[in-house]
C-alpha cells in the first residue's frame, strides 16, 4: 500500500519531469468509482489546456496546482501510483509496473499528454483510489481533515509527549489515525514501534516520556531514510522489520519470532520477546484467569480477588449449613447445578417438601430430561409391606408401543363350551341362553386398537331363528300373531325360507352357521 514515502516519491517524480508543461490531451477512464464527484468528460474538459505549476502532498494525498483553479487531487488508496513514460518511478509492492508493459497500462485512470512530449498516468489496480477536482484542496475535505504531516510537520518531542499522553487507545491505532499524524500507514507504523521497542497494544497514556521520545526519534529516522531512497524497499536497511513482515507466517528477526495481531482492522507485526507489554492488564485477562482457576505466575503482583470480582467471573458458590446460593451467571452456558451432600448421605426417604427444597435452585435451566427421583423405604418393615402390597395387587408395568394381545379367560371358554353343548339339545338351549347373555354382558374382552374384529354368530341370533321358525308365516300369507312382529332391519331383507318342521329347523340351525349381515345387528329380545 502506498504510504507517505511512496506518495512523496510520486510527488518528486512529477516535480522533476512535468512542471511547466501544458496539458494538450487528457484521457480519462470511464470508471465512476475512481473518478469521484464528476463525470469523466467533465474532468477531461477541465484539464485540457491547463499548465502544471507545481505538485503538493499532504499525508497520502497529492494534487497538481494548475494555472487556474480547479485542481486535480489524487488519493492513492491501496494500489494507486504515478507513472511517467520512460522514467523509473517508485517500485513498492502493490503497484509495481513491469518495464516491458505498454504505456499507458490497462489500469490507467487518468492519462495526460504534455506539450513537452512527457506523458503522465495515474494507475490503480484495485480501484480503491479516488480522483477529484477541487477548488482549494487544503481547505475542503478530505485533505482539510488531516492532521499534521508526519514528514513535513512532525511535532517536537515535547508536543508529541503531550499529545500521546492525552490518548487512551493502543499506540498502533493512534499512529494509524490520520487526524493525529497524516501519512502513517500499516508497515510504517509497525516499523516505528519496532525500533522504539513498544508493544503495539500498549495504551498511549501509559507510555513513559522516555518511550515517547524514542518513538519520535524512530518516526524521524525511518521517514528520512525511506524518502531519501524514493521508497525503494531494496535500499531499506536489513535490520528493519519491513523485510520480514509480509509473509503469511512471518519469519525471524534478530533470532526472535515475529507474530501478528489485528488492531483497528489491520494486521500488525511485532516481536513479543522484545516489544514487551508493560501497561495495565488487558481487558478481560483478570476475569479469565479467575474463571479458569489460574494462579498468578511467579514474580507477578496480583492480589487475592475479593468476592465482587469472583461473582463477576460467575464461579463463586457460597455453601452455608447444607444450603447453596445461586451465583450471578456471566456470559455463556450456565454451570451445572450440584446437589447438596446432605441429600446424598441421608439413608431415609425424603418427604415431598424436602425433595422440593433439595432440588436445583429456582431459575436454573437444565438441558435434557430431568433425573428420576429415587426413594428408599424408611425401614425393613415398610419394605416388607410394600412387597406384600405389590403381590396382592400386581400392576403391569407401562410399556411403549402397541399393547400385547389379550388372552381369552375362563369365562369366555365356558361360554364357547356352552354353545357347543346347546347344539344337541334344543330345549336346553333356550334355558341356557339366559346364562349365556349374562356371561356375554360381563366385560371380559379387552379393548383393542385399530379396526374391531369381525362379529361371530351369537346364541341370541340362533334363538331368534328358532322363534321365527315356530311363529313364521304360513304358505297362504297368514299374518304373525300380535306381539311377535319381526324387528326392522337395515339393508337388504333376508330371503324367505320354506316351512319345515320344528325338528328340521332346529337341526338346520345347529348345523348351518348364521350368515353375516350388513349394518347394525338387531336388538335381542327375551324368549316369550
Automatic annotation (TrEMBL):
Residues 420-435 have a biased composition (Acidic residues). Residues 380-398, 406-419, 455-476 have a biased composition (Basic and acidic residues). It holds the Pfam family AT_hook. Keywords: DNA damage, DNA repair, DNA-binding, Glycosidase, Hydrolase, Lyase, Multifunctional enzyme. GO terms for cellular component: nucleus. This is Formamidopyrimidine-DNA glycosylase catalytic domain-containing protein. Gene3D superfamilies: 1.10.8.50, MutM-like, N-terminal (3.20.190.10). Residues 2-129 form the Formamidopyrimidine-DNA glycosylase catalytic domain. It catalyses: Hydrolysis of DNA containing ring-opened 7-methylguanine residues, releasing 2,6-diamino-4-hydroxy-5-(N-methyl)formamidopyrimidine. Residues 342-363 have a biased composition (Low complexity). Residues 319-528 are annotated as: Disordered. InterPro entries: AT_hook_DNA-bd_motif, Fpg-like_C, FPG_cat, FPG_N, H2TH_FPG, Ribosomal_uS13-like_H2TH. It comes from the Eukaryota. One of its GO terms (biological process) is base-excision repair.
